[in-house]
Amino acid sequence: MAELQQLRVQEVVDSMLKSLERENIWKMQGLMFRCSTSCCEDSQTSMQQVHQCIKALPCASGSSPGFAWCTMHCNDKVKDSIDAGSKELQVKQQLDGCVTKCVDDHTHYIPTMTKKMKEALLSTGK
């Protein structure tokens, strides 16, 4: 019986997360991508200038441009290192360091997100 109740709770939580994703997260990601396209219009702009432009946009201010963007940036750095002839171990270390920084930069958002989700859930129960 307890397993059934646990399954019921898990289904409700999964449904809530899917709803948040569809109704909020996708919209936020869409806004971020639409906003950042202006940084990519000039074909003479370097990759570094594009990344700086995206970070400086009002749509990204006060928030992270996203973990996916961060890992994409790491892949770009690795590609540049490979193109420059760096050794495999050096490239791997650079990728590991970059991905670790992405994780470090984004995990600090989790407590705030959790607090906001709890507040929202509590306010719906009133």
UniProtKB/TrEMBL annotation:
Any Pfam family: DUF842
Give the source's domain of life in one word. Eukaryota
Gene Ontology CC: cytoplasm
Protein family per UniProt? Belongs to the FAM136 family.
- Would you tell me the protein name for this molecule? Protein FAM136A
- Organism encoding this protein: Rhinopithecus bieti (Black snub-nosed monkey)
Taxonomic lineage per UniProt? Eukaryota, Metazoa, Chordata, Craniata, Vertebrata
